[in-house]
Structures are given as C-alpha cells and as structure tokens.
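call fold(seq) -> tokens
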Amino acid sequence: MNGARCCAALVLVSTSLLMAAPSADVLRVREWRMKNERQILGELMQLVALPNLAANRADITKNADFLTSMFEKRGFTVSRWDTKGAPIVFARRDAASPRGTVLLYMHYDGQPTDEKEWTLGAPFSPAPFNGTTRVDLQAGTGPVDPNVRVYGRSASDDKGPIVALLAALDGLIAAKAAIPWSIRVVLEGEEEAGSPNFDAAMKEHAADLKSDLAIVVDSPRHPSGLPTVFYGSRGTFTATVTVFGAIGDLHSGNYGNFVTDPAMTLARLLASMKDARGNVTIKNFYDGVEPLTAAEERAIDELPNVDAKLLEQFGLARAEHPDSRIEVEHNRPTLSITGIEAGAVHTGTRAAIPASAAARIEMRLVKGLSAETHLERLTAHIREQGFHVIATGATEPDAATRRKHPLIARVVRSSAGFPIGKTSIDDPGTAVVLAAIRSLGQPVARLPTIGGSVPFATFTDTLALPTIGLAVVNFDNNQHAANENIRAGHLWEAIEIFAALLTTR
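ret:
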C-alpha cells in the first residue's frame, strides 16, 4: 500500500472507531455477562467434557442430545437430521416481524487426540488455567480474569463459539432486547472427518435453510488479534503414496547395498516435489489459480503484518516464502507431507530394511483448481520419476510386476475432503457482519481466504446464499493439537459480536 492510501485508510479507521460505540443492547449484554461469567464457562466445560470423535456414534449422539437441550432452553425449535454418519442438529428461532433470516453454521465434533500429550487439562476433562495455575471457578464470585483459558478438545474448535452464541441470546433475553432476525443454526458432527455427508443433507433440507445470509463460524482470528471475517476457504486433497521394495522386511546387514531401501526411495520421491525455495515442482501445479482481485489485495494490505510475530512464536529463522506474507500464501495451493511410515524408530526395534514405505500427502487447493486434476498431476509426476504406478485397488504389486519394474508405487486418494469455497469480498449481502463488529468500536481483519478448510462451498454453491466466515477464537488456541484452549477474553468478545449481529437492524 502506498503512503497516501495507507494514511487515508488509517484516517478512515480512526474516524469510524471514534464514531462507533456499542449499542445499549450490547452494553446490557456485557453487564449481564460480567455477572454470569462463571456460569458461562461452566456450561462450556460441560459441553467440552463430552467426547466427540465423529467415528464414535454413541459419543456423538450424546453431544447432539446435549446441544438439543441447550438450544431448546433458549426458545429454539430443534430438529435432528439423520445422515449416513453423525446427525445434524438444526435449530430455528423465528422473530415476530423479522428484518430477515440469518443462518449460522458451527460443528460439534473434534479431532482425535492423545491424553498423554496434554500438559494442561485433558481432552475431555476440561479445566481453566491462568498461565499454568489452575483456577477454581466455584471458589470465587464476580468477573473472571480475561486471560484465563479453558483447556479441552473442541474448546475453541468449535464448541466455544456455540456457547458464545447462546450466551449472547441469554444476555439479550435478560435485557428484553428486540431481536429483529429469525435465526437458523446448523450444527454438524463430521466436519473434522471432512464433512462426507453434509452437502447432501443440506441439499435435501434446502427449504428449511433459506436465509438472507449464511455465516460460517469457524477458524481462529487473524494473529493480529483483530476480530476477523473471511470470504473463502481452501479445498483439501489427500493421497497416500506407497513405495514398494522386497516382498518382506530384510536384515539390514545381510541385504543392505543389495535390495533397494523403500524409505530412502520414498524420501527422494518426496524431495522431488518441492525445490529449495519451497515451490512445488509438480508440472502445472499452479496452473489455473485465480489471482487476487484488487479489493482482496487491498484487504491484505490493510492487515497488520504478523509474519515476524509468528516466526518468533514458532521458533523459526525464516518463512518458506520470505518475500511474501502469510495471508498471500493462504491464496496459493500447498503441498505438505503430514505423515511418513517406514519400519520403526523406537528403541529395541529390528534392524531391518522395510518392505514398503508410505507418505500422506495433503494439498490445500484454491479457486481455479480441482482435486481430480491435482491427483492426475501428482500421479504423472511420480511416473516421471521412473515409477510404475499400480492400480489404486491393488493391495500390493504382483510377482510379475515386481520382477519387471525396479521402482513401484501406489497412489490412493482419500475420500474425505472439502471443495473450494469462495465469495466476493465486495458482496453487499455480507456487509451486516462488518457493520455489527465495527459498531463495537473495532476494526476488522478481512481475509480473502483462510488457510484451513471448512464446508464453505455448501453455502456459496449448493445453497447459493450470500456467505461470510466469522472467526472469534484466539489464534493461539492449539486447535487440532494437545492443549487446545479458548481464552476467556475472546469468549467475552465473541458474545458481544453475536449480540451486536443479532440486534443490527
């Protein structure tokens, strides 16, 4: 951004902040929240205490039951939509004379986790901490330090936002505030599994979902700490590449230098997919990427540059693309190795060359690309490195194939994954969300695309609704990892954002 544009933007932001102030309704919600913070955190911990891996149908059902009771308590009519997997909880609350209808999406399932990796709290025994000191919410009264964090699986992704929405409604009801919107809430139980049944269910129930605006509530805030909206999410494509050696593991001394080591072969293959500057070398990998619009470039220019902050936090000397910035890279496709398996590395394991080695390759795709095309490009690259690629359905190469081809690989695409979702950053239908946040006296971080993947395309493409993403949790929440958490101060701000949104006329 040039100097004149920068100064103009700062003046505009400063002027809007001086003029903006929370409405009387939001101030009453804030007052109510300050008197009920311990109860709000208590309800959050009740919800987080329910194990929520999508594959465990019994646990998922308990979550759906608990969520049903939570929403019915706030005057919603709740339906359960069965799918081939986890049920979708659909809640509706109609206004007497609605300005319109707003549809909010959140999910209630969580990522797999290992309790042994947690050092604060436990995945399904949530606990509040201030730093490393555990806090007893029952022992005191009054407001809770905003720096307290509740640790537990899905505390931030995505159960915290669910509780924030309901707390905002509690505050508005207590304040006898008029809510001019009819509200629809969709709670999914398979997002962390790639939402395999979500799009079909939404298509089936499209009439119930008709709305003036869809809001996808997920993802962390921008690392600057600003309230954050986003206008798209990257698609996902995952494949497992297996490289084969001998028909069984072999003694590393007797047969080292005689048989090919599949682990070393796989390492060379993976290394061929990226150059030293971090660019993917698969032929035509970047072909078709839609460039950022001028408005999207301006939105990124207006964001605080957080690259140095992230490098310090992650203990890194430089970014993979030091001449760019993270928000720009979120709008480019990625190739990452998210898992490698070959033999074993634990003490006492056999000194043997493994019979095969495998890697899980994940790509995040942006507008203009497709998973099908990138599967073809990946497979073509593997062939270009001299490999014979066996059929996806084959478990292992047969004897004739082994004797004919010195390098053999198999590529299996995962069935899970999200399509690319994108909406215009200038869509007037989404402006009400920006207005609601700005009414609280804060600027907004506007991201053309987030780095992660959510079922954004279901709302933009399948349902054809004006759609915007809303991120309300702290960026350092450890989602998908051990010690996942939500900071109380961010939960309080989320309550006010929802209150402002639901009372914006």
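Residues 1-19 have pLDDT under 50 and may be disordered.
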